[in-house]
Design brief:
- It is built from no helices and 37 strands.
- By secondary structure, it is mostly beta strands.
- The protein has two domains: about 120 residues, no CATH class; about 120 residues, Hexapeptide repeat proteins (UDP N-Acetylglucosamine Acyltransferase, domain 1), CATH 2.160.10.
Length: about 280
Amino acid sequence: MTEKVMNKEMPKISEDNDKYEFTGEYMKVEIDGKKHTLYRIRAKKDIIVNGILVAKKGELGGFIEKKDNLDDSSNAWVFGNAKVFGNAKVFGNAQVFGDAMVYGNAMVYGNAQVFGNAKVYDNAKVYGNATVYDNATVYSDVQVSGNARVSGNAWIFGDARVFDDAQVYGDAWVYGNAIVYGNATVYDNAWVYENAMVYGNAMVYGNAQVYGNAKVYDNSKVFGDATIYGNAKVYGDAQVFGNAKVSGNAWVDADVTDIRSSGDITDVDYVKAKRP
């Protein structure tokens, strides 16, 4: 719910800011017991991002708490009912819109977009051409960059990194020091965490878990209720699924596929098998 406030109560804005101004409309938001007063902005000139008009002069924008939240020297814009507050910063050609929230010490910049009901907070950074949208949540010290996409109900937290053309969506979690990059995809209810890496064209989905120092890469797929952990590697065109567990120092390459058993493959240097 928004209300009106007298101009004298609004945050100060520099005289040389020819990009936006505060309107008399404001809303209050409480996060972790701390209350924030956010003010709707209005464009003082046409806002053009990468050759596209995103806001006309006089058009209302979203809500920010103070002028430091939205850079006035770049083309970045906050619109719709989006909210940026705390020490968060939006700059470059970045766009935050819909009902998205960016707060804490988070930064959104480059050509990045955060929209829908997405949340980016704490010390998280979203930059490059990355997009975070739907109900996705990105926080802690996470970095999402490149052309990466985080969507659905996905959660990315800890010191995790998602970059290049990687995608994380559905109800997937990527956290700890995990890294997802290349053209890799992590989705459904899959978890990738600790120091695990998923990259190349690899796919991790279903209820699969990849953790420890495990690596899943190339064109491999891990799905179902499979778990890959320890120092295990799954690569080539391998497929690990069902209730299979691969751990220890096991390597599963292009010649190992369709592992369906509930028995473990563990503590071996190399495992080779043919397709059934």
